[in-house]
């Protein structure tokens, strides 16, 4: 009896194995393209994948001299879509954190490659990955994925995350990148301030040179024409002429009165001679001011042009000096600064990899690909000509 029961059990096992083998052959493509990848993903993420710790920090770029504008929500809809104060500088910092320069500077102070070459980490996570050349360019591509950085436009805050296999390494890299960002903001401030001072200094030098040329030209004109101030000198000439005109009028009145009273008075010839001399002097005085090519009026136009040029150059020099002083005063204070909102934390729990979600994601992807391939094959078979 015992032998018979054992034989029956073996027969049942063989039948069961054959049924399983038949089902496996029938569903071999599903097993190959769906079950096997999902099983490999479960084995990797469940037993092989290393824990990854994430250190996060947040910072904002601010300016001490800028105050937030008090605008309504409706008015903000009609404002231009330009960058707000500090957002442009934040974008520059983000671009720097994603650059090779940031990684090079980081490598000078922290042995960052050794942190990601950790032999305790699995071979798919650590650097270099399988089939990767051990080069700086490949490490830069690897490191860029370990340091995601993004800008939150609602709060104007930059979020910096650093992924590493050890909590202390993640925090150390995050802290060092923050210090490098602060140094970058300071360099940008210094560069902008130096450029502003140099530009204003150049304008002061140009205005000084222009004023010097204007003064020399005016001095040469005065020496050549022997005139200190044509306007004042013309005014003096006209004043003398007016006095003589008044004196002439008085003499004419006296002459007329004498001729009426005593036509043969002996003083009449003297009065007529005096009036004629004064008239000649009046004509001479007028010719000094106007009416001739050598008159003061003909020289006044060029003098006024040179005087206006000197005055304009003086105003330009004053304005340039004021701008230079303002730029120097601005250089004494920091235009923008990096304010840490959240300090780099030292994680006490691994946040990555998200094992269960990754397994489900891979399972969903392979199932979708399998169904797409299955539908394509069924469609091809349905539309194929019958033999």
Question: How many E-type strands?
Answer: 4
Distance between the termini: 56 Å
Overall form: rod-shaped
Instruction: Name the strands of the widest sheet in spatial order.
Output: 2-3-1-4
Low-confidence spans: pLDDT under 50, at least 5 residues?
67-83
Structural class: alpha+beta
Note the beta-strand portion. 5-15%
Radius of gyration, whole Å: 49 Å
Order of helices and strands: HHEHHHHHEEHHHHEH
Structure report:
- By secondary structure, this protein is an alpha+beta fold.
- It has a domain at 354-387.
- The chain has twelve helices and four strands, in the order ααβαααααββααααβα.
- Strands 2-3-1-4 form a four-stranded antiparallel sheet, covered by helices on one side.
- A hairpin with a 4-residue loop joins strand 2 and strand 3.
- It starts with a helix and ends with a helix.
- Residues 178-224 form a coiled coil.
- GO terms for molecular function: protein tyrosine kinase activity.
- InterPro entries: Bact_polysacc_biosynth/exp.
- It comes from Edaphosphingomonas haloaromaticamans.
- This is Chain length determinant protein.
Question: Short summary of the structure?
Answer:
The protein is α+β, with helices and mostly antiparallel strands. The chain is 69% helix and 7% strand.
